[in-house]
Design brief:
single chain, 92 residues, alpha+beta, three-stranded antiparallel sheet, elongated
């Protein structure tokens, strides 16, 4: 499913134009991204929690050459599904 599919589904279920639905979906995604960039968690009841996690610097290997490379520290987004979402996905 792509963002376009989500926009069409929101427009249909909410009875709004595709332009309004696209703006709403975009605002939700932007709000989540902004909160994660500030280091905040985003909890959506019954859906899950988005969080920003710090990954420490580490040593890695180039798979082609086997050469050791250093991988810098970074912050990555993560998602933990709520039990209700896991149940739906598992057919419950």
């Amino acid at each position: 499913m792509k963002k376009r599919d989500i926009v069409e589904r929101v427009a249909g279920e909410a009875g709004m134009s595709k332009q309004a639905a696209e703006a709403a979906v975009g605002a939700v995604f932007a709000s989540i991204a902004d909160a994660l960039a500030r280091g905040e968690d985003v909890r959506v009841a019954g859906f899950g929690t988005f969080a920003a996690k710090d990954r420490p610097a580490r040593a890695g290997r180039n798979p082609r050459t086997g050469e050791a490379v250093s991988i810098p520290a970074s912050t990555v987004p993560s998602f933990k599904a709520a039990r209700a979402l896991r149940d739906v996905v598992n057919g419950g």
